Amino acid sequence: MAKPKPQLLFLTDEKDIKEFLPLKAPDYPKILKERTEKTLRNLLDKGHRDNENAKCAASAAYWVKYYGWLYNPNAKAPYDTFPWIPFQFQEELIDYLQEGIEKAVDLSVPFREDVILPKCREMGGSWATCAVYSHDWQFNNGTFLVLSRKEEEVDQIGNMDTPFEKLRFLLKRQPDWMLPQGFEWKKHSMGMRLINPNGGHIGGDAMTPSAGAGGRVKSIMFDEMAKVRDGKDFKAWDSLSLTANHRVGISTPEGSKNKFAHLAKNEDNENATVINMNWWKDPRKMVDYSWRDGKLTSPWLRECERTMSKTTLASQVLISFDTSVEGGIYSSQYSDKHQAKNLQPVYGQPVLVGMDPGAHFFRLWTQILPCGCYLCLREDYDQIADIDVVGEKIIKTNNLHFPGFAIEYKGDPAGSHITGSLGKGKSEYMYLLAQWQIDVEYGFMYNIPKNEWQTRGFQACRSRMTKWCTEHQRPMLQVDIENCPILHRALSGEYSYKVGHDGKPTDAVDEFHPIEDAADAFKYPPLSMGMYIPEATNARPKVPRSRGGEWLPPSQMR
After folding, report:
1. At what angle do helices 60-67 and 88-104 cross, to 10 degrees?
2. What pLDDT does 507 receive?
3. Residue 49: per-residue pLDDT
4. CA distance 472 to 373
5. How many angstroms separate the Cα of 347 from the Cα of each of 83, 329, 344, 402?
6. E-only strand ranges, 33-164
7. How many CB atoms lie within 10 A of CB 10?
8. How many CB atoms lie within 10 A of CB 169?
C-alpha cells in the first residue's frame, strides 16, 4: 500500500524528526471534556448514540480516541485504568492498519500486505493492532487470528501482556449499546476465542506450522514474533501465507536469525512494509530532548543507557537486530570473502561428505585441498528423514555433481548406535553401508576427548576462516552460498550460543534445526583431516566400526 504524505509514523532516521519537533502530546483536557460530553449525550439522546455509532464504525482511530481505554500495570487501582487518547504516531498506525485490512479484503483489487512493527518497549504497537482487530470484529463482524510463542502467551486470564486480555479489556469498557447485538460475555468469550453472534470471530493459537489450519481470516497478528525459536516462526509465517491477505508482525528485536529480523531487514525478498516504532516518536520519552554529537538524546534515554545492559538496550529501546543478542559462533570471522557462487570441485582430490544423521539428516559435500583450503560445495537436508531416501539422494548427488571423484564420508558417531527409529534393528551407518555401500568414518572423533568435540570443531572451522591460502590466492574457507544456503545462514550468525536472562551468551549452543545440523556437518571433514591441536588420549570408540553390516572389535578397525 502506498504510504501517505510524510507522517511521523514512517520516519526511519531520527534526523528527519526535526520538522515535527517539538512533539506535542494530545490536548488531554479538551479531549477528556469531549469524551465526558459524548457519554452524557449518549445516555439521553438516541439520535446522538446512532450518530456516534456510525462515526466509530467508520474510524477505528475515532473509536479509540473517544471510547478506548488503556491499562498501566505500574499504577495503583483505580489509576491503572485510564482513557486511551492516542499519540500522533499511534493514531497514524491505527489508520494505516485499518486502511490496509479494508483494502486486503476488497475483491475488486488484488492486494496483499505484510506489516512489520519492530518496536521500542511501551509504544503501544500490540495495543494498536488489538484495537483495530476488536474494532473490525465489533462493527464489521470481522474474523482474525492472533498468534504468539505459546498458548499461554496468547491468552491467560488476568495477564494483560497477552493479546486476548487486551482485546477483552477494550471490549469490556464499551457501552453496551455499542457491542454486537446479542453478545453475551459468558456465552461468546472463551479461551483464545471471541465470537460475534452476528458473524465473525477472533481466534488464537501458538505460533506453530499448524497454527490456524483451515479457513480464511481478514488479518493475522504475530505478537512478540522474534521470541519464537527453533524455526517455528519461519514455518508458521509460510504456512499462513494464504490464510490472510494481511499479516502484522510485532516484536522487540531478539537477534538477527529469526523470521521477524529477516522480514524487518528484507532479507527474504518478501517486501514487507516495515514501520519502526522508535522511542523518539513518543512525546513522553522526548521530554527535554537535546542533540549531542549529532545524535538525539533525552533524560529518558540516558536513564535507560545507565541502567540497562548493552544487549537489553539494543533489544528493548534502540531496535537494533545485530547487537540485541550476543554469542554468534562464526559470524565475527565469516565475511563476504568466504562466500562464493558456482564453486567447482578440484579434480584429483576426494570429496568429503560431512554427515549429521538422525530424524533431521544433513549432508555437506566438501573438499579439503593439499594446501589446506576447505571448499563447501553442496548441501542436502531432510527434516523427516527416511534412511532409504537419504541413501538414494546421496548416491544421486554423487553421480550428478561429482562423477569420477573419490567419495569419503565423515560423520557424527551417534549414527553408529543401534536405533529403533529405523525399524530395522541396525544403526543408520550399518544400514547405509549394507544397503547403499555408503561407508561412514567416525572413529577420528575418538582421537579427541569427548568433552572437547564441540570446542575442537569450532577451532578447526574458525582456523579456516582466519587464514589465507597462498597457492590459490583466496581464504582457506570457501562456501558456495547458492548450493549451501543453510550452512551460509549458520555461519552468518544463526549458529550461536544460548543467551541467558542477563543477555549474556552461555557455554551451551542454541540448538535448533536445521542450523545446528549444518554446523555439525561442517566440522566433521576438517576434524577427520586432523585440523585441530591433537592431544594424547586413550579414548576408544564406544561402538566399533562396522563392515558389511557386522560389528568388528576395535582391534580390527581400519
Report:
1. 140
2. 67
3. 94
4. 8
5. 74, 32, 9, 10
6. 69-71, 81-83, 113-118, 144-148
7. 18
8. 18
* pLDDT tens-digit readout, 23-34: 999 999 999 999
Tell me the pTM.
0.63
Half-sphere exposure of 491 toward its Cβ, with a 13 Å CA cutoff?
A: 25
Distance of CA 493 to CAs 257, 356, 389, 496, Å? Answer: 7, 20, 30, 6
Q: Which amino acid is at 210?
A: S
Strands 468-469 and 546-547: unpaired
* Local structure of residue 297 (DSSP, 8 states): E
Percent composition of the chain: helix, strand, coil (DSSP 3-state, to 5): 40, 20, 40
Q: Enumerate residue ranges in the chain where pLDDT < 50.
A: 3, 533-558
Decide if 233 contacts 204 (C-beta within 8 A).
no
Contact 500, 341 (CB under 8 A): no
- pLDDT at residue 227, rounded to an integer: 83
- Which bin fits 540, alpha (ψ -120 to 50), beta or left (φ > 0)? beta
pLDDT tens, position by position, 283-319:
999 999 999 988 999 999 999 999 887 777 888 899 9
Are the CB atoms for 498 and 510 separated by under 8 Å? yes
> Cβ neighbours of residue 450 under 8 Å, at least 6 residues apart?
539
d(CA 56, CA 35): 13
| Nearest-angstrom CA–CA distance, 18 and 280 | 11
Return d(Cα 490, Cα 474) in angstroms, integer: 21
